[in-house]
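Dear support,

We are seeing what looks like truncated structure output for some complexes. This example has two components. We would appreciate it if you could run it in full and send us the complete token output so we can diff it against ours.
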Amino acid sequence: MTGGALSLRNLRFAWPCGRRVLDDISFDIHPGERVALIGPNGAGKSTLLLHLNGLLPDGKPADGAIEVDSLLVAAPHLGEIRRRVGIVFQDPDDQLFCETVGEDVAYGPRQLGRNRAAPDVEGAVARALAAVGLESLADRPVNELSRGEKRRVAIAGVLACDPSILLLDEPTGDLDPRGRRQLTGILKSLTQTLVIVTHELEWVSDLCSRAILIDDGRIVADGPIAPILADEPLMLAHGLERPASFGR
Amino acid sequence: MSVGSVPVGLRLASAALAILLLFAIPGPVSPGHAVYAALLFAGFRVSDTTLARRSRGGWVALVILSGAVIRGWIAGDLFAGLETAVRGLLALGTLLLLAAHLPPAVFARWMRDRGAPADLVGTMLLLLRYGDLLRQEAFRLERARGARSFSRVAEASWTAKSSLVGALFARAVARAERVYRAMLARGWQ
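Here is the complete output from our reference environment:
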């Protein structure tokens, strides 16, 4: 599937305890665009991702408007929104809840109502596993996988649902250099719209053309990634560091 | 021929028949039970699955127990109360050996192919997967606590153990919430 479009207008969110996490967030992401969502810990990046898939605010209408391909992220569209917007969570163990790789990758397609056409599910699983280079691991128990393999299976599980937008929450968090290289190759091969939350600024600058810097629940910078990463005062003011290869 | 090549249905039927016979045949525990225990013991010895290896220690105890009961039976019913325990242990051993050679994913596929409700199979697999994750979580907590415990007495205290259980519960709840979100994100309703 090709990329989808995302639009946010004046999104606000506070946890039930009253702590405000997102404050007046607005931006547009065009089909096929690759965007890095950066910012210090606790800035609200992961919370924002959960909104884009309709996982927050827990079934209630969002304070603000979120649209995916002009479809409002709210009931009764949540099923369709979750088919279009795939999310890869920070910890793959949260995401891989079936016994084997094949079962887990098949979970999404089965839930999306394709279970009446079994070959379709099998085809979706085979294509998704091929996209992440794990065709041979379909029968492998999930608990026998390395961290990098789990990450790739998590991505396959989302790709099997054929989303048009892919959200990734700190995808390199626990990967070794080889795992990171493999992940980079996979992400570069995708045609979907990508939104990547990460602290790995050097890595993400190779993947994304645009960055959105969030701090304290507000957007403080939005634009081409290179000038933002090269702006040392901006980066330091918001708990980040200019990557070594920028601004020299 | 490996156990894996035996049809799942035959494996299940054999175990069910063995357990049925263990409880259905009337009369005291007989040398036949000891022979069955020895066969099970041999099965655990040659099996190379993790579950079978972990169960071996228990089988030594069972064989000793069986020997004691048989001796009592020969001597005049001194260990009659243990007969039920022996039958129960043999049935448990049969189930353990079956589980050691029937991976949950294979069993789940077999159930699904025979029309078991997808929700039932999915829930079963979810419980198995998260049972394993919880075990790993408990191991990490225990190891982290051990790394900063400088007295064995303190480490073994009820206070330390209860705080471990509390922390494990809190982590399990947090993980359950994240898993629920992951399921919702992939279309679960």
